[in-house]
Structures
1.
Amino acid sequence: MEKRNSRKDLLKSVKRVVIKIGSGVLTGDDGLNMPVMNNLTADISALRKSGKEVVLVSSGAIAAGIRKLKMTRRPRSVSEQQATAAVGQGNLIRAWENAFEEHGYQVGQVLLTRDDLTHRRRYLNARNTIFTLLSWNIIPIVNENDTVVVDELKFGDNDNLSAMVTNLSESDFLINLTNIDGLFDKDPRAHEGARLISVVEKVDRKITRFAGAIPGFLGTGGMGSKISAAKKVALAGVPTIIANGLKPGIIKHLFGGHVEGTLFLPEPVSLCSRKHWIAFTKSPRGEIIIDRGAERAIVEKGKSLLPSGIKGVRGRFSLGNSVLLINEDGEPVAVGMVSYHSGNIQKIMGANSTEIESILGFKHDDEVIHRNNLVLTAHMDEGDAACRLKI
């Protein structure tokens, strides 16, 4: 039996929280579900008045566009979805604006693509914008910029976006509100005896199987993507609760310590913010194949990747991009941020670091990937005790 006070104590220490609200919560039969939005706004405003900062990740732009355009079905093609989102995004932010205005709060719209968070300077600019809004007592409302995003720059869904925003905003907690009570061991809509899992200490294969047994709901993110988001923030030392956003007063109940939804506990040892960004925010743009010696040096000794240990390069990528390191068996070893363009790495692979300048005519670094810019795949599952970098 889960102790009631454990949640209350955990949430009591929270200073900043990301609340992600899915389409299944915000969408009614004929568009946005205003009664639900008003209930959530009241809870969030009360939370803000108590001194806690809130960053809202909101779905619903397409749903709002469907209503405004009087469509009879959800658009199927990418261009139709983007156009519908363009029409609906204004209505969505206006609905939030009107709802929060009743409680004396202003909102600020923040539209992001993965490309905004992949580039370090733009990542930091986005973070500073959110921090400034919070300092002005304005509630940031974040959504993916659907109207301009292309497939390779998409977050995939707002669950994934909420995990990235949690890291971006240095928040202490992630609350993911959906139209189901939490994670069940079976699909509760198909199995009467499905059991709600109250606490998840670690996302393992068993938990992943539970998520896979529950199909996706309205929108692009099903339970699997919510579990993935919870795992990502757990590796940053942040807990998550997945709960039913259709329940009146759900946020108030959660912060009151009520056992609602599924609580995902954080990892005891977490990745620092920079390595979390490298591992989960930057999309790998290519692969570098490394030999046995380089693999041992990186995995067992915590060394950097030198050109002498490189056997091959796949894909085209630029300085500062993330790439996967693949061993001779074809298995991923790590992900890291490169110091050289892919074409230049092909020229210097197998060479000693002292030869880089004579081969290329210049030298950025002795290392192709510095150890501070490397995250082992094992550490992406277990945390990185050696990570001490600050940004």
2.
Amino acid sequence: MLTPTFAADKLPPPEIQANQHIYDDYFDEDFTRAIDCDILQLLDRVWFRSKLVGFEPYPQRNNPARPLVFASNHSGMAFPWDAIVALAHLFRGVADPRDLPRPLSAPLLSKTALMNPYLVRNFWKKCGCVDATSLNFETMMYYQRHNLMLYPEGVPGIGKGFDKKYKLQRLASSMVRLSLLHDTDIVPYYCINGEYLNPFAYTWPWLNRQIEKIGIPFLPLTLLLLLVILQPWAFYLALPAQLTFVMGRRIRPDELTDKKSEDLTRPELLALSEQLRQQMQAEMDAAVAEHGQRPYAWRELWQRMKENRRYFPFFLPFAWPVAFTEFERRYVKNGERDFRLPLDEPFAFWKMVWRNPFVLAYYIPLLGWIPLAIKGYSGNKLKVKEPKRHFPNPVAAPVAASVSVPTQPPV
């Protein structure tokens, strides 16, 4: 049971008290740490080469009783490797567990195994994600074990198309309202170069409405889509964009208005949300100008590959399904702990394929999608009704790949 910080005469409503279980339903800190050590650190070191800019000193709470709300831009048209990398980087660096942001993520992320990287069941929730509903938001405000992270653009942000890269879509006014209500600060940060994880991808609204019915928020139209059909592993593909995360100026919503949240009209909330969007847009434009001119940094990528050549091919996207599947076999199915994947051993790739023959489906043109779809949708929850109290425009679910898209996880 968590210990909230509030007076006994101001206890939260019973539904919030009963909702404390969200912290521990799935979150597995050992799983998060292990998958970071075994896989994600290598991917970050070689492929994504992430950097944090402006995170020192790390933001601390003005109101100790309320978590900070970390808010970021969505990188369009890709599986959310940006959120995975950002949270993995933070997970390694924060000293106080309360400083780590727990993402509020679209429930769609967890409805099918297909929306979890390489069909690792409950990947997002094991790594700390909580379904984005207003009830969960308020629960995390009262029982403040961690900071929060969200993407206030929602699905429109991730599905905006390459022609609108780095253009913030309308922010959820609920972020402003709930931050005012709970007297907490918003800490914006910006993912730079994430738009190049899956460049030159666009969407068609009619097609998106159809694809949503199978649990995917939209289908990016790009040349990489052909590769996805022929090589199913490319569903989770990310190009080697060097991800840079830039901290913005802290926002205190109570300084933007002299009204209480419950007294604000809908137009006033929208105006405040637009004011925040404009501030964040200006900061992101400056960050792009400084850090976004060489999104791939090819020379550095080649140098990192040479330095880590003993891990070949696991730092390349086509080998990621094998590494993730072997990790799940050992950690989840076998219950092993305190192990390291031998990614640098001779013939490690083929040994893992031998132990996990199902991964061959990722490399079979066209027909490989049949077993992947069966496994990805078995036990799916697409028809399960969502909680009534949704947090508007939650963290968007990933898009399929050409889709190479956060918290996102921590991981």
